[in-house]
Amino acid sequence: MKAVVMNEIGGPDTMKYVDQPEPLVTPGHVLVDIAAAGVNFMDIGVRQGMAWNDMPNPKILGVEGAGRVLAIGEGVNDFTVGDRVAWVYAPGSYAERHSIPATSLVKVPDAIDDRTAASVMMQGLTASHFATDFYSVQPGDIALVHAAAGGVGLLLTQIIRMRGGRVIGRVSSEDKIAVAKHAGAEHVIVDIKGQFADQVLRLTGGEGVNVVYDGSGPTTFNGSLAAIRRSGTFCWYGPVLGGPGPLDIMSLPKSIKIGYATFFDHIHTAELFRARTHQLFRWIEEGSLKVSIGGIYPLADAARAHADMASRGTTGKLILTP
Ligand SMILES: NC(=O)c1ccc[n+]([C@@H]2O[C@H](COP(=O)([O-])OP(=O)(O)OC[C@H]3O[C@@H](n4cnc5c(N)ncnc54)[C@H](OP(=O)(O)O)[C@@H]3O)[C@@H](O)[C@H]2O)c1
């Protein structure tokens, strides 16, 4: 089969579209024919050597996707050949086929196509976790959402709106304003220098926001601190784009609560994973959550998808099709 591997740590040019051995279906696993694989910043982080360093190169990139069950491993009772399934955190997903632990799979309803399902596994679970478990958005709350036209940002904005919250978005260029507003952002600030806090304070009558969602790297960190109201919440989530470095807890202002949010810490069993994914699928079926796919690339062009994502020129979710 064909797959996209990284041969060494480095830029997109280290990614190669090559022949790989067919995966074997082992006990507890399900062999899947992949229809759509999601591109995540996490994949860029792996390529840059921020994770998976204990796995030898060459290794197949990608952790997320959707497709159809081809074969069932011993001991798997909850899937049958032909089922449509989706997954997240299954390393090796930039490929035509993959053998995936059954506990990482969820069935996809008929009404949801493969690309849409693949689009919400990482970013949708992340967004729903952020707006519920990490900070339970209440009616009337105001949130600052960074990278508001990105994959997480568009889904998070809609989920905050569903819960009765209001959203101020921050994007890097004018052409993303309409995209963020279409998802429900009330105001959209264009900034790449970390100088958005004054505008946020003006828009909130000097008080600041109840919650900031910031995965945008060190440039935004201090502005995000300044934009939070007293005893507000700082949801930091961007390991790949970088953090603020060591923090002196006594330097944190206004009795804010701050934490690094990762959905896997709350959604850590197959039951929780399936329940939360089904909730996302229900929202999509009802029409209350719209999934915006900003780019569909042949699997062979995964390196171009990585370069485009890192260029800040894309919006929504990027998908690879084997
Ligand atoms: N903690 C978790 O559980 C979790 C889960 C998923 C993702 N993440 C993190 O969330 C971040 C977004 O990842 P994603 O895969 O979900 O993609 P995404 O939400 O689609 O993010 C893409 C957005 O990131 C911004 N961006 C791109 N390059 C940038 C750069 N060099 N510097 C600053 N901003 C840049 C762009 O927004 P603007 O150009 O408009 O700023 C772009 O729209 C990453 O840091 C990732 O590690 C964390």
TrEMBL record:
One of its GO terms (cellular component) is cytosol. It comes from the Bacteria. The keyword Aminoacyl-tRNA synthetase does not apply. GO terms for molecular function: mRNA 3'-UTR AU-rich region binding; NADPH binding; quinone reductase (NADPH) activity; zinc ion binding. Keywords: Plasmid. It holds the Pfam family ADH_N. The keyword GTP-binding does not apply. InterPro entries: ADH-like_C, ADH-like_N, ER, GroES-like_sf, NAD(P)-bd_dom_sf, QOR-like, Quin_OxRdtase/zeta-crystal_CS. This is Quinone oxidoreductase. It comes from Sinorhizobium mexicanum.
